[in-house]
Hints:
Blueprint: E1 16-23, E2 26-32, E3 38-42, E4 55-58, E5 63-66, E6 68-73, H1 89-101, H2 106-122, E7 125-132, H3 135-145, E8 148-155, H4 161-181, E9 186-192, H5 200-213, E10 216-221, H6 225-235, H7 239-245, E11 253-257, H8 263-272, E12 275-278, H9 280-285, H10 294-299, E13 303-306, H11 319-333, H12 342-349, H13 351-356, E14 372-375, H14 388-395, E15 401-406, E16 409-412, H15 420-440
Parallel strand pairs: 1-4, 6-7, 7-8, 8-9, 9-10, 10-11, 11-12, 12-13
Antiparallel strand pairs: 1-2, 2-3, 5-14, 14-15, 15-16
Helix pairs in contact: 2-3, 2-15, 4-5, 11-12, 11-14, 12-14
GO molecular function: 5'-deoxyadenosine deaminase activity; 5'-methylthioadenosine deaminase activity; adenosine deaminase activity; metal ion binding; S-adenosylhomocysteine deaminase activity
Pathway: Amino-acid biosynthesis; S-adenosyl-L-methionine biosynthesis
Binding site for substrate: 101, 193, 223, 309
Amino acid sequence: MTSDDMDGIFGKNHSLLITNVVVDTKKVDIVIDEKGIITSVGEMAGKAWKGDEDFLIDGNGALALPGLVNTHTHAAMTLLRGYADDMILQDWLSQKIWPLEAHLKPEDIYWATKLACIEMIRSGTTAFNDMYFMMDQAAKAVNETGIRAVLSYGFIDLFNAEKREAECKATENLAAHIKSLDNPRITAAVGPHAIYTVSPEGLKWCAEFAQQQKIGIHIHLSETEKEVTDCVATHGKRPAAHLDSCGILTPRTVAAHCCWLDDAECRLLGERGVSAAHNPVSNMKLATNRAMPYADLKAAGANTCLGTDGCASNNNLDMLEEMKVAAILQKFFWNNPTVLPAPEALAMASANGAKALGLPTGRLVAGVPADIILVSNRDACNIPLHNATSNLVYSTNGGSVETTICNGRVLMLDRGIPDEAYVLNGAAEAAVALVERAQSG
Ligand SMILES: C[C@H]1O[C@@H](n2cnc3c(O)ncnc32)[C@H](O)[C@@H]1O
Ligand SMILES: [Zn+2]
């Protein structure tokens, strides 16, 4: 069962036995078959297994939980981390971010997305919802790193018919490319950027294409008060109603931010079964000046999930940190310490996130793909263990993740990731070259 050569554990599927871990409050062992499916989460702690698994991982008392699901990011923005901080959203986008993005090359997207995947694996994320550009390169990076992703092209027609045609083509091409990969870890979605960058015709095309392809929709919604007032002035209705009139609000839709929704819009998102992705760190850093109305959205039946947004407005991809900020921001902003209790924050980052992306993961039960992370409870910040969920939400962070498994394949073991340094160097060099190109025009 146990192989001396643990290095051989990386790179392909094996049958695995993970012993001596804590799930919720119970000490259990977990068995994963060579197809990457959890076959048992058993109360077998302490029993000497006589199984014939290829590898045994001694969890040494670590907390085992479903891999975290980042339901809103722009992964390749790792290359823009720290490039522009301390600005309001529209200036940040128009004066700094979009001008630099104009100089991005395909290899930049590859290196930046690989860096993002390494950062997510290291901090316990096993699936992410991405919206960016040159996404064939993102797919290449995701395929190589072993993580799970829903990839959408950032559709921006700027209300121009000619540009809209090109955006539709790019969206169709990405969907066809991802279908051709036939990789169960990589799925496509449609990514209309926002109501202030996509025409109603563009939104309607995106909604129809998503329905025809049976894929998801990923959009920014009501991030700022200006977005709402401009929408009412332009379209005569609030953003959620405008999106609904274009067919965008569906059970396959992830709406990111949702800061400035009113009660009627919360009810509309609930009625349509939309997933509302809360990005508390980005919202606070860009000063959106209102927190997502989490309790109203949850009460209305919307699926509340969690995202980091991109690394230029966070500036990391640590979903354990994001959970904590979500739980305390909601308490602070709505002036109620009972809002978003720890178990609900953990659900946002795991089961709800998997539901938002249509993934079979998000729970540690037999019969589902093994997306599992082990979080040390031997770090000072995680001792004592009165309440594992409390520790996961309020005291630990991504640095305490020891082992990350996605689709049954070990991506990180005891904090070691193969080829990590090579990826970090490649991305660092790409970032320097990008800024040099931008500066030389
Ligand atoms: C895909 C495009 O979206 C841009 N972007 C990154 N973060 C945000 C945000 O918080 N709101 C709106 N748009 C955002 C990114 O730079 C790409 O241009
Ligand atoms: Zn975003």
